[in-house]
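Q: I'm writing up a methods section and want to include an example of the input and output format. Could you take the sequence below and give the corresponding predicted structure tokens, formatted cleanly so I can copy it straight into the document?
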Amino acid sequence: MNQSTVNLEKLRLFVKGQRDFHIERAEIYSHNNFRKNKHLETAKEFDELLEYLESAHTRPLPKGQLVLALTPDDLDGLPEELVSELSISSADKAEFVVLSVMEEHGGIMSLDQIMVHYYRATGEIPRRTAMTNRVYRLGQKKLIKNVPGKKGVYCLASISDATLAELTGENIKGESQTKQNA
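A: Here is the clean output for your methods example:
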């Protein structure tokens, strides 16, 4: 089982526990309609989140999103003999570090942040042009993408445009949501 699957399973169990907790609390406060309803609303939201998490694991990639590149998760737990037989270059290994760093820090980072955390992970001082090229290659492999409207900011390809818009305050066309609402 790769690290993403383990994290997804831990998150799923946590959400399920929270849902069950709020259902139990609603029963405890059955005499107080306000508190009971608040717990039931919260339980419903956790239930919706649980459904989403369970579907995320089995959801097929959208058309045109085929990714043939290996990721660090693909190599997790493989015997060294098999890994040595794979065509993984030192550039691929450096890209794995970039992907791991981005996953550890929420999936959205500026090039400067990537460089700082790459250094912390490897002890190597990255050259800006080399890191820019590395990020570009990851984009070509459809493992990361540019954040629309944000120069030098990248995110994991698994982050949806809707989530990006919510996190950055920009819609997918790069317009500020505050401008759009005015």
